[in-house]
Recover the amino acids of this structure.
């Protein structure tokens, strides 16, 4: 039986499947539990959630309970910006997930103007350090759409992972990926298919015969980058899980000429 390839998540040392599952929208459909179970059954071992993702942690907790325990990695996040707030969120996540500790906890969607506050005494980063000392979380990461924040996170040696946006549609962060790899910081890619809006629009154009680029081609583009650790594809339905896993099991990395071709079509589409 074929298995999804695994990559090392930087200095965390975790060996994660290069295809992960983003569970932000999964609870919004009745098939959400089926979607998560199928992803795990097919070999995905990295689920990404957050306190702000309504119902997501609780749904994952239900899946863990039904499966008789956790046999995969969980990454969650806090948008709280204070020491006490981030600690509260960790405790709340633990309760909803029904676990004793969380593999990776991240400061979520950090803006440049928030950096100093987050990293100062009394900031959210200190709260996560305390949570790690208490044995409630194993590793600390950060997520941001800001290149400035990601650069600071790579340079400061405070984080074990960074989550950034990267796809054939959005390549601004591409130059930062090898810098993170050089510092042994795990790179988690959000929106590898360009985000739900672009993906829905792309499927509409495909149906109308207006696009040859497909979501799985976009996923192949991201997975072809050897410096990323895991691509988080957000899914609601089991059919999308099967589609993504099939790609992960069968793809060959793109050659540079083909990557440029995908990039050109992506830019023409949007």
């Amino acid at each position: 039986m074929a298995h999804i390839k695994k990559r090392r998540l930087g200095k965390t040392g975790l060996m994660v499947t290069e295809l992960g599952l983003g569970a932000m929208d999964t609870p919004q459909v009745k098939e959400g539990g089926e979607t998560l179970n199928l992803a795990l059954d097919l070999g995905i071992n990295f689920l990404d959630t957050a306190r702000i993702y309504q119902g997501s942690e609780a749904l994952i907790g239900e899946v863990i309970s039904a499966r008789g325990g956790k046999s995969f990695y969980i990454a969650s996040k806090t948008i709280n910006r204070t020491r006490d707030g981030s600690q509260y969120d960790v405790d709340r996540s633990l309760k909803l997930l029904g676990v004793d500790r969380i593999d990776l906890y991240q400061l979520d969607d950090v803006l440049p103007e928030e950096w100093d506050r987050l990293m100062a005494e009394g900031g959210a980063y200190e709260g996560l350090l305390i949570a790690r000392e208490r044995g409630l979380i194993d590793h600390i990461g950060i997520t941001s759409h800001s290149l400035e924040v990601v650069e600071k996170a790579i340079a400061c040696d405070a984080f074990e992972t960074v989550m950034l946006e990267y796809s054939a549609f959005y390549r601004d962060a591409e130059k930062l990926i090898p810098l993170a790899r050089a510092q042994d910081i795990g790179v988690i890619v959000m929106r590898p298919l360009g985000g739900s809006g672009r993906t829905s629009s792309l499927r509409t154009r495909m149906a109308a015969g207006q696009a040859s680029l497909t979501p799985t081609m976009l996923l192949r583009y991201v997975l072809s980058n050897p410096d990323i650790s895991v691509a988080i594809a957000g899914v609601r339905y089991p059919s999308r899980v099967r589609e993504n896993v099939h790609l992960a099991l069968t793809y060959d990395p793109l050659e540079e000429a083909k990557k440029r071709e995908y990039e050109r079509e992506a830019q023409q589409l949007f």
